[in-house]
Amino acid sequence: MITAIGFTVLGFAIMEFSGWFIHKYVMHGPLWMIHKTHHQPSKSFFELNDLFSLLFGSIAVALILVGASGLDYRFWIGIGISLYGVLYFFLHDVLVHRRLKWFDRPKSHFLKAIFRAHQAHHKTNQKDDAVSFGLFLIPKEFLKEEEK
Ligand SMILES: [Zn+2]
Ligand SMILES: [Zn+2]
User: Which of 19, 111, 118, 148 is the most exposed place for a label (fewest CB within 10 A)?
Assistant: First the structure.
């Protein structure tokens, strides 16, 4: 049981840390051609940038399948990546970008911080001057409520 939880948390954490790294150095780097579709207003529901979600999702499914017979560490890491993917979808795609109009603007302190930090990431549509590349790893200035 403890192994299952441990590897699930590990899979989740790997996604946030490697996601931060990939977003900053690959998506805002050599693969900007794909990621820039997420920094420009899009005319259709899907963006070329969704390929990244598809890629991470496929990795999770592959891990779950190869680990399924023995419910080994690969299975649980795959579950952790999937959980991250679901949460990422709700927070990033629905809450922040409102691709589906399911929620109003966030009211909790933590969700507001995620919202502000990711909006700051989208202040620019350029490759090089973006800030705040994680979803949960937020630069600390966004954790403070703005004084009004
Ligand atoms: Zn970006
Ligand atoms: Zn975004």
Answer: 148
Task: Tell how far the Cα of 134 is from the centroid of ligand 1, in angstroms.
Answer: 9
Instruction: Return all residues near 99 (Cβ < 8 A) that are at least 6 apart.
Output: 45, 93
CA dihedral 114, 115, 120, 126 (to 10 degrees): 100
Residue 24 alpha carbon to ligand 2 centre in Å: 13
Q: Tell me the pLDDT tens digit for each residue of 4-38.
A: 999 999 999 999 999 999 999 999 999 999 999 99
Q: Where are the domains of the chain?
A: 2-102
CA distances to 24, 94, 102 from 87, in Å: 20, 10, 14
